[in-house]
Amino acid sequence: xxxxxxxxxxxxxxxxxxxxxxxxxxxxxxxxxxxxxxxxxxxxxxxxxxxxxxxxxxxxxxxxxxxxxxxxxxxxxxxxxxxxxxxxxxxxxxxxxxxxxxxxxxxxxxxxxxxxxxxxxxxxxxxxxxxxxxxxxxxxxxxxxxxxxxxxxxxxxxxxxxxxxxxxxxxxxxxxxxxxxxxxxxxxxxxxxxxxxxxxxxxxxxxxxxxxxxxxxxxxxxxxxxxxxxxxxxxxxxxxxxxxxxxxxxxxxx
Length: 254
Hints:
By secondary structure, this protein is α/β, with parallel strands linked by helices. It has helices at 34-42, 73-87, 99-110, 137-141, 145-159, 162-168, 173-185, 191-197, 215-220, 235-238, 240-248; strands at 2-7, 10-17, 20-27, 50-55, 92-97, 115-121, 202-207, 223-228. Strands 1-2-4-3-5-6-7-8 form an eight-stranded mixed beta sheet.
């Protein structure tokens, strides 16, 4: 485990595997933590040999949970940029799952010097509508913050199932709620528009039976769409071999 202080008393932490440059930086989704989701893939023979940082965003996993932080997508991206700069990393390959994909897009748009290429794993790229009882960010964002903190967190934790709950229970409650609200609201311009306009190599991995909305437009803008079979949303867990092969085969270095 490593840590870097991004402002007085606030640290982002990660699990690191040594290796060659350029580094790969792995980002988790909402209510998750990078090492539990990516460790098996990072250890796969197709992906070993590269410096790999499984980073936890502020509020999640082993990173700090400052209650005064906004936990917006831009805030997450800016905090990550500070951490990467203090670590001494520039032009890394960023691999982001779900909400981590949205943060990766915003990072590339706001801090282009930090990002060599993007691998987006079934990412959130469009605003959505909150709805009580809906899975993921939509259900969380349907609460008011006070209600979520008083009773909503426990209900969500009970309903998500044991796998997701294992990491969600480590999340700061404010972090989980505010991140979900901002993810549902999206950025301005949207994450999709930012992704379309980036001029770096971009790969989007998706489950075989769930191609992304607007795939033709994404492909026309140079985004490589890669279908990974036998997977749901957690591609790197559901099919480690397929995920590793999809990442390793991309021509991402520029």
